[in-house]
TrEMBL record, chains A, B:
Taxon lineage: Bacteria, Pseudomonadati, Pseudomonadota, Alphaproteobacteria, Rhodobacterales
Co-factor requirement: FAD
Domain Acyl-CoA dehydrogenase/oxidase C-terminal: 281-447
Residue ranges of every copy of the Acyl-CoA oxidase/dehydrogenase middle domain listed in the record: 161-269
Name listed for the protein in its UniProt record: Acyl-CoA dehydrogenase C-terminal domain-containing protein
Family the entry assigns: Belongs to the acyl-CoA dehydrogenase family.
Gene3D superfamilies referenced in this protein's UniProt entry, alphabetically: Acyl-CoA dehydrogenase/oxidase, N-terminal domain, Butyryl-CoA Dehydrogenase, subunit A, domain 2, Butyryl-CoA Dehydrogenase, subunit A, domain 3
Acetyl-CoA dehydrogenase-like C-terminal domain sequence ranges: 460-587
Pfam families reported for this sequence: Acyl-CoA_dh_1, Acyl-CoA_dh_C, Acyl-CoA_dh_M, Acyl-CoA_dh_N
Record key words, sorted: FAD, Flavoprotein, Oxidoreductase
Native source organism of the sequence: Paracoccus onchidii
Chain ranges of the Acyl-CoA dehydrogenase/oxidase N-terminal domain: 78-154
Length: 591, 591
């Protein structure tokens, strides 16, 4: 059975030593002392290790079942969901006005990582609810907020997002689901939605669907789209549940992974819905939640990888196979443990340096979201730029990392018994949903890069330049961190310039390099994050606190990233500079 | 339902235009004219498309069942296996003395690719039999050959390879299966073997297991290992089947993929076996088949990727989503097909340039094996060097390529319905079995690189140098092929020198970079292969033959590889040159 231990020490280090959160003037931050965050994380970790992780394989093996229109979750999910609710975990970073605890998102996403790593398919029921909560919280009327939010904060009711239809996913302008206005101000929603995560299940009294549909008079394409609240059971004026609405589960998808989550085909047959936000402005309402939702998927990428990594480490220490080339290390055993072998060590270091770097990036991103919620426009611009990078890069690399963890097990990784296959199969979805990674790359190059005249991109590069200038003479950082970061960020700048110069004349020159740009950007961002992280570790070392070993390990892990991962920027740049010609040379018939 | 079409045109081009096989003085080669090879490949393609490909999903969904000790294969497998036998496909490249058709391995592996791409799990039943056939053919006594080979050539009896035990895979010196000599010259074999592909099934009368076990007096470690023939049913003197032997299936493994192949736990309880080859020289007997078996896995890597690619192309042309940034291309449709988008095109070009390059490498490798069987020591040295590269690089990249194909489908790739998940799950195994890719990297750096004083490595580099010298002024090749190949091969040379200089003092400096070296080597090899391939295409273009479009497409695909894939050598070299320090910096406890 796979194990999972929440990385409590790393969270505390990132929150307090790197981000120094308690000293930041943001709502709720001053109360976040080490003891408090430590207690919250430890409790989340206990629930994750004791209850959620053991259900991960169960969820994978049993999957969800649709019987007579009712979706049944795997054995044990219901009890675990109750435990989540009772522990207040669903309400952590929600608005106190609706029963939430008002904790910063920075701490909220840390607990989400813990639950996701332990059991991704399970954590998604609450994750989707949180997304729907945010949409109603931002765009709902007071009546809508009062009707839905308290129950969604407690997860007595869960939420979903209904975008995709059989013929359209990325290109939502094509969607066909119709909303007919009724005299009472409500709408009748008719159409079919697919790939609806947590679409229905037996763990909550009600499911609140947020549905994109076309109401009359909105024009063609995405301009005609509005967002509707469509509850599974209609809610009476007193808040109790009334009739079943005209929405049903058509079928459950058979998927590669996340079997414990019910991915539903949802049929809307004149279901009653209520407009959320402005008419014909549904896309905008959706997009305001995107930064948060996509950062959540970025987190899934490395969270799933972390669970896989932890098990690979256990296996690499336990499994005896071969002898160290530099001399026997386990003379009393029949062989040395796998971890003595340099190629196994490289594999583990790849994973470790990615996961810890990814965590630092996502916590920083969550902090930027906290800032932007408090009205910081620069933070909003920066996180808007970094969101496609974090989502695309961390989910691509998270999958790769899980595959590496599986590889440590050899043939034992390919059989389902050890659970390593599941981590790989689960991690795969993060590259696809919330906008496939190719769409993230397009968003980055075509929208985020030129946004506000390229201001946010320039600010990001200036930020790195300033860092490099400030620490260029720092003995601990100069050679191992500043120099490689400088070189990598120069590659990023060259690529951005190439796009700006060439992209106007031939947009394909930018688009052909978009995925490479996303990855180049991702490496530079992780390089920067690692440099900042190791600066904090260096300070802690110099201050002579406890846990010297933790800080030294942190710095060695960061160095590994700079030496062995950052050189990827050279290759990405070379590909980008080759432009559109090699990519577009063939006619479609030639494929 | 996924489609598959055998790449007949590409095979013919590689065999006749690139390798010019008919003019080569090797057994059977002179008979291989275009018409003959074309007819064979077309027939194989027809069987694959019509019968094997439609069973691929069936095999994945149903898997194999173990009932009362009997393994049942999925519906339709038995009929398809009969069709393989009746068509003579199992006998193609086997020795005519035992009922084979004596066709060169070069053509044999092409037909294997076709069957593998259509249905990998199914093709493995014959593939493993061919491996066992080769072992008996090379090391068996005349009596053993006469007893087993005719039935194995016809696949009336199939074969297996039994190496792995629960506690050892890579480190076979640890194995515990025992062989006790009997007075009649046979042995009684006792022990448990796991991960035995095609271990048992209902498609053949008998299964001939080749089993590694320890006989008394052989000493510790791998030196004490011998190889035994252990048939499921004992064979009487007249060749008919006698009693059931003491070998049984303990259980079937639940795996991530290749569900249609029965991966068995085999229990040997005093089963009767006969020594194959010399006593205590079992490892040597195994290794003589390794080049061929590993080249077969290299083939699986890109074959599975090709099937995935073909379906991604169909989807990219059919699925309407978004508009081309350079102007609408499908004005009568609601949107343009995916294939207009540069990032989709990049994705498909990555796949296409890898798959065609991989095929060219494996066919060249098969040709080298044909040469080495005819006594060519240089060819044997070269293929021995290239084998770990081909196995590791093509299986790693084949999996990546299948993941890319799946990505084209977006959410539709994650659900099982379209079969893209299966290609990914199936392709994953090739990175693990026949020596996990980390072991290939170790074999490359620690054994093959220094083999015969580094002669084969130097010969390979000289071969590329000679090519670059010869075509450095060729207008069609110089800039697009020779220049990047020169740069990449310089990286390879630098890496090899680094290992030679540093590896003696600190072997970890070489081993920490072993996987990067394997990939660097793989890119250079594919770059070289692509340059040769495009030279042949250029000649064909100049000769003004038919099919100009095919040759132009080939050259454009090759250019893509040189421009967009070959730059990876820079990154691999940078990692290698960083040495062991970053990789080995942490103590095991720090993970």
């Amino acid at each position: 059975m796979p194990i999972y231990n929440a990385p409590l020490r790393d969270f505390q280090f990132l929150m307090h030593d790197v981000l120094d959160m308690q000293k930041i003037d943001l709502p709720g931050y001053s109360e976040m002392d080490r003891d408090f965050t430590g207690a919250v994380l430890e409790a989340a970790g206990k629930l994750a290790s004791d209850m959620l992780a053991p259900l991960n394989r169960v969820g994978d093996e049993q999957g969800c079942r649709l019987e007579n229109g009712v979706v049944h979750t795997p054995d044990g999910f219901k009890d675990a969901f109750e435990a989540m609710k009772e522990g207040g975990w669903t309400a952590l970073d929600a608005d106190p006005e609706y029963g939430g605890q008002g904790i910063p998102y920075l701490l909220g996403i840390a607990t989400s990582e813990i639950f996701t790593a332990a059991n991704m398919a399970f954590a998604m029921y609450q994750g989707l609810t949180h997304g729907a909560y945010s949409a109603i919280h931002t765009h709902g009327t007071d009546e809508q907020k009062n009707t839905y939010l308290p129950k969604m904060v407690s997860c007595d009711w869960t939420g979903t997002m209904n975008l995709t239809e059989p013929h359209c996913g990325t290109d939502l302008g094509l969607l066909r689901t119709k909303a007919e206005p009724q005299d009472d101000g409500s709408y009748l929603i008719t159409g079919q939605k697919i790939f609806i995560s947590s679409g229905d299940h037996d763990m909550a009294e009600n499911v609140i669907h947020l549905v994109l549909a076309k109401a009359p008079g909105g024009g063609e394409g995405t301009k005609g789209i509005s967002l509707f609240i469509v509850p599974k059971f209609l809610v009476k004026e007193d808040g109790s549940l009334g009739d079943r609405n005209g929405v049903s589960v058509g079928s459950l998808e058979e998927k590669m992974g996340i079997h414990g989550n019910a991915t539903c085909v949802m049929n809307y047959d004149g279901a009653r819905g209520w407009l959320l936000g402005d008419l014909h402005k549904g896309m905008r309402a959706m997009f305001t939640m995107m930064n948060e939702a996509r950062l959540g998927v970025a987190m899934q990428g490395y969270a799933c990888a972390d669970a896989a990594y932890q098990n690979a480490v256990v296996y690499a220490k336990d499994r005896l196979q071969g002898r160290a080339v530099t001399g026997t290390e386990n003379p009393s055993g029949a062989a040395d443990p796998l971890i003595v072998h340099p190629d196994i060590r490289r594999n583990l270091m790849d994973q470790k340096s990615f996961i810890e770097g990814g965590r630092a990036l996502v916590l920083w991103g969550a902090h930027l979201i906290d800032r932007s919620h408090a009205g910081d426009a620069d933070a909003e611009g920066l996180i808007s730029l970094l969101t496609p990078v974090a989502k695309g890069f961390l989910s691509d690399k998270g999958f790769e990392s899980a595959v590496q963890a599986q590889q440590v097990f050899g043939g034992h990784g390919y059989v389902e018994e050890h659970g390593m296959s599941q981590f790989v199969r689960d991690a795969r979805i993060a590259m696809i949903y919330e906008g496939a990674n190719g769409v993230q790359a397009l968003d980055l190059v075509a929208r985020k890069l030129p946004q506000d005249g390229g201001r946010h991109m320039m600010a990001f590069i200036d930020r790195i330049k300033a860092f490099c200038q400030k620490y260029g003479d720092n003995a601990a950082l100069a050679d191992d961190f500043v120099a490689p970061l400088k070189a990598a960020s120069k590659d990023l700048q060259t690529a951005a310039m190439f796009f700006m110069e060439r992209g106007m004349k031939n947009p394909n020159d930018a688009l052909a390099g978009s995925s490479d740009f996303l990855h180049l950007f991702g490496h530079v961002t992780l390089g920067y994050i690692w440099a900042r992280t190791c600066l904090a570790a260096q300070h802690a070392l110099e201050n002579g606190g406890d846990d010297q070993e933790f800080y030294r390990t942190k710095i060695a892990t960061g160095k590994y990233y700079m030496r062995r991962q950052l050189p990827m920027t050279t290759t990405h740049l070379a590909r980008i500079l080759s432009g559109a010609e090699p990519v577009m040379a063939l006619q479609p018939d030639a494929f």
